[in-house]
């Protein structure tokens, strides 16, 4: 069941919700003003809204431009539906004196201010973090940028794919034929996750000190953190991890192989014990594990074409079901390379329903379960849906 507006009960379609009464929302009473667009900042604020914070989203008259990315969800954009549940939409212009006064009235009572405008835009309008922190000492400010501050890239516009390229992620992703894009907005998401965690830490710190914090999180920093392993590997060896498609650059066998009925099964061997069990139970060649060219992971990586060919030959003779049965019996980690149509019916997929201006939408449930239950999610707002109520409340 879904409540028509606000925060009603939402049933997890795999039955998780309802196991016990939900706890009080941990961020109830927290107010967030978010001057946001696209993905990174809305990701952060959506998670705060999920936890019970009141999130007031400032939009242009035409709305957050992410509203126009597609029309896949009952005429609404998939990105917007995903990232804006549980928020209030207020149309305001930070350059307009009356609207600026309204926003400052909200900020005087707010706990968190998030912005991800173009570099310098918020500061030029009087909403820069130093000014706000001096004016509202308990306020936590969050500047979400592309590349951070204090260097040559600080004024660069940044979007997800650009940062995938600049951070080196694209260079180590994809097929050996050339760099590739990760298929979701991974730099935006990494940044939004880091911002969310930082806000929660700042709220805890404020409980102890009474002081807010100035937070800065960039798309580049978020992805650079995720690039630690390839970077450290490169600096330590002088070699960058190679693009190997659906395989692992430093483990063998760890990759995708085609079955007799044209499925792709992805296997992962993590140690020599697993390799020996795989050889015996899946390849039906127990002596293979100790043969020259197969006897250790480092040797197998160097001998990858031969090892992979031997594994591929075995899977080519098995159907998907036969491969799954052998892999399960050998306790080999495996998965199938699924299409999105397979994800729709995946037995592990949890979904919830949220209300939107165009009717209910089924989205993937947030990852965390709280005492076995899925949190209720608020509705996705129409552009300016809460204008009149917010302006009346704050004297605008």
Structural class: alpha/beta
Number of domains: 2
Strand content: 5-15%
Strand order of the largest sheet: 3-2-1-4-5-6
What's the rounded overall pLDDT mean? Answer: 91
CATH class of the largest domain equals Alpha Beta
The portion of residues assigned to helices is 25-40%
Choose one word for the global shape.
elongated
Integer-rounded radius of gyration: 25 Å
Q: Give the biggest beta sheet.
A: 6 strands, parallel
Return residue spans where pLDDT drops below 50 for at least 5 consecutive residues. 1-22
CATH architecture of the largest domain: 3-Layer(aba) Sandwich
| Helix segment tally | 15
Tell me the span between the first and last alpha carbons. 36 Å
Under CATH, the topology of the largest domain is which?
A: Rossmann fold
Which series of helices and strands comes N to C? EHEHEHEHHEHHEHHEEHHHHEHEEH
Instruction: Report the CATH superfamily of the largest domain.
Output: Crotonobetainyl-coa:carnitine coa-transferase, domain 1
Protein name: Acetyl-CoA:oxalate CoA-transferase
Pfam families: CoA_transf_3 (PF02515)
Region (Disordered): 1-23
Keywords: Transferase
Topology:
Elements (H helix, E strand, L loop, with lengths): L30 E5 L4 H11 L3 E6 L18 H6 L3 E5 L5 H11 L4 E4 L5 H4 L4 H7 L4 E6 L14 H7 L19 H24 L4 E5 H8 L1 H10 L16 E5 L5 E5 L3 H10 L15 H6 L1 H13 L3 H10 L3 E4 L3 H5 L6 E4 L6 E4 L22 H8 L2
Parallel strand pairs: 1-2, 1-4, 2-3, 4-5, 5-6
Antiparallel strand pairs: 7-8, 8-9, 10-11
Helix pairs in contact: 1-7, 7-8
């Amino acid at each position: 069941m879904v409540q028509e507006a606000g925060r009603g009960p939402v049933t997890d379609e795999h039955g998780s919700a309802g196991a016990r009464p939900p706890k009080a929302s941990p961020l109830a009473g927290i107010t967030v003003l978010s001057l946001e667009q696209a993905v990174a900042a809305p990701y952060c604020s959506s998670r705060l809204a999920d936890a019970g914070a009141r999130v007031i989203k400032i939009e242009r008259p035409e709305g957050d431009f992410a509203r126009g990315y597609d029309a896949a969800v009952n005429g609404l954009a998939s990105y917007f539906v995903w990232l804006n549940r549980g928020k209030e939409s207020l149309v305001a212009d930070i350059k307009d004196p009356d609207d600026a006064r309204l926003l400052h009235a909200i900020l005087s009572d707010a706990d968190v201010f998030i912005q991800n405008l173009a570099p310098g835009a918020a500061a030029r309008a009087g909403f820069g973090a130093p000014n706000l922190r001096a004016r509202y000492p308990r306020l936590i400010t969050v500047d979400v940028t592309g590349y951070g501050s204090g260097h040559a890239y600080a004024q660069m516009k940044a979007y997800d794919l650009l940062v995938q390229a600049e951070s080196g992620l694209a260079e180590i992703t994809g097929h050996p034929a050339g760099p590739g894009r990760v298929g979701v907005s991974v730099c935006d998401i990494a940044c939004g996750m880091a911002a969310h965690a930082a806000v929660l830490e700042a709220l805890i710190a404020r409980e102890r000190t009474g002081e807010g914090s100035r937070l800065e999180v960039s798309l580049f920093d978020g992805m650079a953190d995720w690039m630690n392993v390839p970077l450290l590997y490169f600096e330590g060896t002088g070699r960058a991890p190679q693009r190997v498609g659906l395989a692992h650059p430093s483990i063998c066998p760890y990759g995708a192989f085609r079955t007799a009925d044209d499925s792709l099964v992805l296997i992962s061997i993590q140690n020599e014990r697993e390799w020996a069990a795989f050889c015996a139970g899946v390849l039906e060649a127990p002596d293979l594990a100790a043969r020259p060219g197969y006897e250790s992971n480092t040797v197998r990586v160097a001998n990858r074409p031969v090892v992979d060919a031997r594994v591929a030959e075995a899977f080519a003779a098995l159907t998907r079901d036969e491969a799954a049965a052998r892999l399960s019996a050998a306790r080999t980690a495996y998965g199938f390379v699924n299409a999105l149509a397979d994800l729709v019916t995946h037995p592990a997929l949890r979904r919830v329903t949220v209300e939107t201006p165009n009717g209910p939408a089924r989205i993937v449930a947030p990852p965390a379960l709280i005492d076995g239950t899925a949190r209720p999610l608020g509705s996705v707002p129409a552009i300016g849906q809460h204008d009149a109520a917010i302006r009346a409340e704050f004297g605008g």
